[in-house]
Design goal:
mainly alpha; disordered N terminus
């Protein structure tokens, strides 16, 4: 129940179509998901993807930097946000290969040029490198446009 409440507070735009500002203690990784949902609902969908992937980068960094968290804490929140916020954004982005890659490259560029304020690169360099490597692998795994369109048709998803 605690995580459902946190999810609704962080992603009110998806749940209710209006924004509710979180309190000042909201971690930046989770704030990125809220901002991504707001951008997506406002029609700024590629930018929403960039912010969502930046949030994923930060969340994965948080999880790697703190591997002994209880499963009903940050790991559960990350899983919930991945389903509620990331899934619709990814489904839309996947409709156009260029948009999908642009969103991921935007987040990658941010990660390469900035140090996460909560988990700075100078202290968490190994974790930064691991998450950045995963993002680069994800970008490289996107199939060519014709194959992506074929896969999406087979799965009943629209192409743009």
């Amino acid at each position: 129940m605690r995580h459902l409440l946190a999810l609704l507070l962080l992603c009110p735009t998806l749940a209710f179509g209006q924004s509710v500002q979180p309190g000042p203690i909201t971690p930046t990784a989770w704030t990125d998901y809220q901002r991504a949902a707001e951008l997506f609902n406002a029609g700024e969908r590629v930018q929403a993807g960039c912010v969502m992937y930046r949030g994923q980068f930060r969340a994965r960094l948080l999880l790697l930097a703190n591997p002994n968290q209880p499963p009903d804490g940050a790991p559960a929140l990350f899983a919930s946000l991945s389903e509620v916020v990331a899934r619709p954004i990814n489904e839309w982005l996947g409709g156009d290969r260029r948009d999908w890659i642009a969103a991921m490259e935007c987040a990658r560029d941010w990660a390469q040029n900035n140090s996460d304020p909560d988990y700075p690169r100078r202290r968490y360099g190994k974790q930064h490198a691991e998450v950045l490597s995963g993002l680069n692998q994800l970008i490289a795994s996107i199939p060519p446009a014709a194959e992506l369109r074929k896969q999406r048709r087979a799965n009943g998803l629209p192409n743009r």
